[in-house]
């Protein structure tokens, strides 16, 4: 009987995002195995979003620079000052979550992509 083990690294994002592409290339170039979770194809549930919020903070996760944010109504944008409303918008519009989010098996996580930060973070995964 074989026992399945949890993946060491999970990368969350959207495959068409330029920053996610750079992060995936970095991982591939460095021969780092990762499971990729695409928000557009696989979605995000409230439990996973709560884990992100606990690990990274709501403010760090809310991408206010992207197209999805610009397409929100002014009322929706203003409502994100309320944590519950911000969560609901992220669940409804996963592309408004800053990306990529990289999660290690120990639960530690990063948002965004920077080669130096990632290098240090990934050393802790070994």
TrEMBL record:
SUPFAM superfamilies: Thioredoxin-like. It holds the Pfam family ArsC. PROSITE patterns: ARSC. PANTHER family: ARSENATE REDUCTASE, PROTEIN YFFB. Belongs to the ArsC family. This is ArsC family reductase. It comes from Rosenbergiella australiborealis.
